[in-house]
Amino acid sequence: MELILKETISTLGQEGTLVNVKAGYGRNYLLPQGKAVQANAQNKAILARSLASIKAKLETERQQAETLSKKLAGITITIAQLTGADSRLFGSVTSTDIHQKLTEMDIDIDKRQIVLADPIKTLGEYTVQVKVGFQMTTDIIVKIVPITDKA
């Protein structure tokens, strides 16, 4: 099934791209969600007319992603957590915790952009990937330290 993407999908392609997908995927997901349209003559003509605006929009998204990547590059976040024996945490550090710290630093991203395979459950320093958009990622450092009581 040949379709024209109406938005960028990381596993298929960018907005305005003609793609061939399995009929079930196109019919049951892409078309009902409004993520693609049939690649008929009429829609191809519409695509040809709007190609310049699509390219300008993609260029703007790429520039925003590069700006965010430069802002995030080399950032170190420190999160204090309660610990038990052998440096294990009571609970864990998740992408929500990392997102909260980034928000405190006036960095506005969606928590789904933080790529954390498993929650962090021990003290230490971890490299975490952040999807900044336009199929670009950048790494940040997350330090997990114990909470120290100053009583």
Average predicted local confidence, pLDDT: 90
Shape label: elongated
Q: Which CATH architecture of the largest domain would you pick?
A: Roll
Strand content: 25-35%
Q: Provide a count of the helices.
A: 3
Largest β sheet strand count, sense and barrel closure? 4 strands, mixed
Instruction: Indicate the structural class.
Output: alpha+beta
Report how far apart the termini are.
67 Å
Trace the largest sheet across and list its strands.
4-9-8-6
CATH top level label of the largest domain: Alpha Beta
How many structural domains are formed by the residues?
A: 2
Radius of gyration: 21 Å
Query: Element order, helices and strands?
Result: EEHEHEEHEEEE
Helix content: 25-40%
In the CATH hierarchy, the third-tier topology of the largest domain is known as: Ribosomal Protein L9, domain 2
Please provide the count of β strands. Answer: 9
**Low-pLDDT windows of residues:** none
Name of the CATH homologous superfamily of the largest domain: Ribosomal protein L9, C-terminal domain
Could you walk me through the main structural features you see in this protein, from its secondary elements to its overall organization?
With 151 residues, the chain is α+β, with helices and mostly antiparallel strands. The chain folds into two domains: 2-63, Ribosomal Protein L9, domain 1, CATH 3.40.5.10; 71-146, Ribosomal Protein L9, domain 2, CATH 3.10.430.100. Helix content is 33%, strand content 32%. It contains three helices and nine strands; from the N terminus they run ββαβαββαββββ. Strands 4-9-8-6 form a four-stranded mixed beta sheet. A hairpin with a 2-residue loop joins strand 8 and strand 9. The longest helix is centred in the middle third of the chain and has 32 residues, at 41-72. The mean pLDDT is 90.
